[in-house]
Specification:
Elements (H helix, E strand, L loop, with lengths): L23 H8 L7 E3 L6 H6 L4 E4 L3 H21 L6 H9 L5 H14 L29 H11 L3 E3 L3 H5 L7 E4 L12 H5 L5 H16 L3 E7 L2 H6 L4 E8 L11 E8 L5
Parallel strand pairs: 1-2, 1-4, 2-3, 4-5
Antiparallel strand pairs: 5-7, 6-7
């Protein structure tokens, strides 16, 4: 039996656009308790849900190679990652040097990723056409903690038995078996007018990908898996999952650069079982 440990959730060591910390009070009761099987998360991102649920057995994946390399390095040699982070400082010169560096070692690569993530603007991960990280240094009232040693040590413990892959979600879901619990959190933006949904989301997760994800969810439902999906609140998404249970949740958008533009938005919680 896989147990949830709600009394001691682990704060994620990364900032991540689209992170699900805000929705954890809604998600955790739906995901657990987990009885048998694995916890499967094909869109890992910063891992806030995984680090809250802390399953004994997990299958984690993401298509971001740098992100997955970082999770693997934290799992395999967290002390080396922490030591490398301690060599850095928060300054324009160090930020520029780290951004332009190309470390070869797994721990060096992970330390670069974590440092840039925790010192750049809004924790964004963005690369140019040449694949080079191009997010500017962030502004902070006090120097940010980019070493986060305790979070990293706790993350290593949580990841000890996890399988970690850099795969497309459909490939990962082929590994799912009856009794597994699958949390699907595809990339999407909620900062759109209804008529702009496809245009705004096409660059991060195409409509064909959304349709493919819905087909995968139906296949998983047929093999007796527990499915929890988060997605944008839009008529086209509701139509895709019309045979599932759908619930609307509310939050304030944190993506816009100006606070005045951060309007309340709604998102969807979709499951293949009744939601309380």
């Amino acid at each position: 039996m896989i147990n949830i440990e709600p009394a001691k959730p682990i704060p994620p060591f990364l900032k991540w656009a689209g992170g699900k910390q805000w929705i954890l009070p809604h998600l955790v009761p739906l995901i657990g308790p987990l009885e048998g099987g694995k916890y499967v998360e094909p869109f890992l991102g910063g891992g806030s849900v995984f680090f809250t649920v802390q399953p004994k057995r997990a299958l984690l994946s993401d298509v971001n190679g740098e992100l997955i390399a970082t999770f693997k390095a934290v799992k395999e040699n967290v002390c080396a990652v922490i030591q490398r982070l301690r060599d850095f400082e928060f300054s324009p010169g160090c930020y520029r040097a780290v951004k332009n560096s190309r470390p070869r070692s797994p721990h060096g690569r992970a330390a670069r990723f974590i440092y840039l993530n925790r010192t750049c603007w809004n924790g964004l991960y963005r690369v140019n056409r040449e694949g080079r990280f191009n997010v500017p240094m962030g502004y902070f009232e006090s120097p940010p903690d980019f070493v986060v040693a305790e979070r990293l040590r706790s993350a290593q413990m949580a990841l000890a038995e996890a399988e970690i892959y850099c795969h497309d979600f459909e490939r990962v879901c082929r590994k799912v078996r009856s009794g597994d619990t699958v949390f699907l959190d595809p990339p999407y933006t909620v900062a759109h007018a209804n008529n702009g949904f496809l245009r705004y989301n096409e660059a991060i997760f195409t409509w064909k990908d959304q349709e493919r994800l819905a087909r995968v969810a139906r296949r998983l439902d047929c093999v007796d898996c527990k499915i929890v999906i988060t997605n944008a609140d839009h008529p086209s998404i509701r139509s895709l999952y019309r045979d599932f249970r759908i619930r609307t949740v509310h939050r304030r958008s944190l993506v816009a650069g100006k606070a005045s533009m951060r309007r309340p938005v709604t998102e969807l919680l979709i499951t293949n079982f009744p939601q309380i």
